[in-house]
């Protein structure tokens, strides 16, 4: 398994996922890692648990204080709720089980949360430096003290004015946190999980008046060295500078040799730090394929950074496109929508969906997706690299069938009319959802090549992150409209691609999200804020 060609690995992750893990793989539930990282023996700075119940009407002027950062982190990635629900009783057992878990406002594959969140902070109330957000205790752990503006700027290829930023967020992946359950399939989940967290960070930043920019390209070794991470355990996937200025200034990076530094050279400017942290697992298996993918995706020089160039291709005839009714952006309290977000399974209820409701869902998900990043450079509103397909049943005024959403024209492009619920149900690897109770079934899609010609092996994880970001926007919009959505990877990509005829656009379905009305699940829930 460890000698598998990486291109074969990526192909199997997408189209034949059963072949990426050993047949005899068994999850050791009793030796599961914690879903959050716990550092030990470091200076700790507690954050306020008196979190506001709403994010509306905030004063978003001026540099934030530590109290604001605590609220920002709570809504971005904090432990927000403790829930207890009764599991369905198996026929062979006399008693029913009780499932207890800590909930966050963002979903995660299997509830395992492989991502971790770090911050470079420059606030007057605590030492400038690198911090880890300890979600379990809602506090900051100081990893490295100092001003690292210049170091960070060069790690990002001198393309953003980090001097004007009060903070930078780092989203990492801890390999073992979901490898223990999913084996090599974890690599696909880790990019999606990171993308969903990035999407939440960007949405919360807007409510706090912070401008942001996502960097998918950076000197990996230098950034991991700054945070004191062991690259055999964990690696940063994205860096997000934060500023109170309206826009973080784009810098024109020079091409002279003296302006370019290698990751190893940059690392030598800082001493190595190693910190003790608690995992809980007593036995940690090897994951050589994940490390090989990380190594193949690594960037060691800013000369390897690329701005994205899109392939020119013919667009199919849009004469039959169904224009959707014009709709305004949704207006909602993000805090309430996050609290109400729900991932139904057996709770979906089939009800007719008004066309205006579907139009609002699609419009909000795609318009809110626009964000600044290092792939598009200084360009405004570039064409997105991921898109939405959907199978709709019982939507007023449009025929049942499979469609592609054209966000530029705000229209549905019919692909295959008819009721396709049976076909999609047969393509699911687990019967945990009855699709005959689901009116809206979405697939987020992207290029089949995973952008490897432009971005190398890093293109795959970037595509997964952008897919996760769009999934996040779709879930928020669904929640704002009183519906639930459940992201799933247990679907047959070959079957869904054939249904949507994605080959004509060189696209493939990356993740499946049933969306619709639902009934409440019987459970006890308690807030973890005061």
Automatic annotation (TrEMBL):
It comes from the Bacteria. Residues 93-239, 399-496 form the Nitroreductase domain. Signal peptide: none annotated. SUPFAM superfamilies: FMN-dependent nitroreductase-like. One of its GO terms (molecular function) is oxidoreductase activity. InterPro entries: Bacteriocin_Proc_Enz, Nitroreductase, Nitroreductase-like, SagB-type_dehydrogenase. It holds the Pfam family Nitroreductase. Gene3D superfamilies: NADH Oxidase. This is NADH oxidase. It comes from Paenibacillus azoreducens. The lineage of its organism: Bacteria, Bacillati, Bacillota, Bacilli, Bacillales. The gene is noxC.
């Amino acid at each position: 398994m460890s000698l598998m060609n990486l291109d074969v690995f990526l192909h199997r992750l997408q189209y034949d996922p059963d072949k990426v893990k050993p047949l005899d793989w068994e999850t050791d539930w009793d030796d599961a890692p914690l879903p959050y990282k716990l550092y030990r023996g470091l200076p700790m700075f507690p954050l306020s648990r008196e979190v506001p119940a709403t994010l509306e009407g905030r004063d978003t002027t001026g540099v934030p204080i530590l109290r604001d950062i605590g609220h920002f982190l709570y809504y971005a990635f904090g432990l927000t709720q403790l829930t207890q629900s009764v599991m369905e009783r198996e026929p062979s057992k006399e008693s029913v089980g009780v499932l207890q878990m800590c909930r966050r406002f963002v979903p995660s594959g299997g509830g395992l949360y492989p991502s971790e969140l770090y911050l470079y902070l420059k606030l007057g109330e605590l030492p400038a430096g690198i911090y880890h957000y300890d979600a379990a205790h809602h506090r900051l752990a100081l990893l490295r003290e100092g001003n690292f503006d210049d170091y960070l700027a060069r790690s990002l290829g001198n393309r953003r004015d980090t001097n004007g930023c009060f903070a930078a967020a780092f989203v990492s992946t801890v390999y073992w946190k979901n490898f223990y359950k999913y084996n090599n399939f974890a690599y696909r989940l880790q990019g999606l999980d990171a993308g969903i967290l990035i999407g939440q960070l960007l949405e919360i930043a807007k409510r706090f008046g912070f401008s942001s920019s996502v960097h998918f390209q950076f000197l990996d070794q230098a950034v991991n060295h700054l945070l004191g991470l062991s690259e055999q355990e964990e690696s940063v996937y994205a860096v997000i500078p934060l500023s109170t200025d309206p826009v973080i200034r784009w810098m024109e990076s020079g091409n002279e040799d003296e302006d370019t530094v290698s990751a190893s050279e940059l690392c030598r400017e800082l001493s190595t730090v190693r910190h003790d942290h608690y995992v809980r697992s007593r036995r940690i298996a090897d994951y050589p394929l994940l490390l090989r993918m990380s190594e193949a995706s690594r960037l060691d020089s800013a000369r390897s950074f690329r701005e994205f160039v899109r392939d020119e291709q013919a667009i199919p005839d849009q004469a039959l496109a169904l224009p959707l009714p014009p709709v305004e952006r949704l207006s909602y309290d993000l805090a309430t929508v996050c609290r109400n977000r729900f991932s139904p399974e057996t709770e979906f209820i089939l009800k007719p969906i008004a066309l205006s409701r579907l139009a609002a869902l699609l419009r909000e998900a795609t318009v809110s997706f626009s964000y600044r990043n290092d792939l598009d450079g200084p360009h405004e509103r570039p064409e997105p690299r991921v898109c939405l397909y959907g199978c709709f049943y019982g939507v007023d005024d449009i025929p049942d069938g499979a469609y592609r959403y054209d966000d530029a024209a705000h229209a549905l492009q019919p692909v295959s009319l008819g009721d396709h619920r049976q076909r999609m149900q047969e393509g699911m690897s687990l019967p945990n959802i009855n699709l005959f109770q689901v009116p809206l079934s979405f697939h987020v899609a992207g290029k089949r090549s995973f952008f490897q010609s432009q971005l190398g092996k890093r293109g795959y994880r970037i595509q997964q992150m952008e897919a996760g970001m769009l999934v996040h926007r779709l879930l928020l919009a669904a929640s704002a409209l009183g519906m639930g959505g459940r992201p799933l990877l247990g679907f047959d990509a070959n079957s869904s691609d054939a249904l949507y005829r994605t080959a004509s656009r060189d696209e493939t379905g990356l993740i499946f999200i049933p969306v619709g009305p639902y009934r409440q699940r019987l459970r006890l829930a308690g807030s973890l804020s005061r």
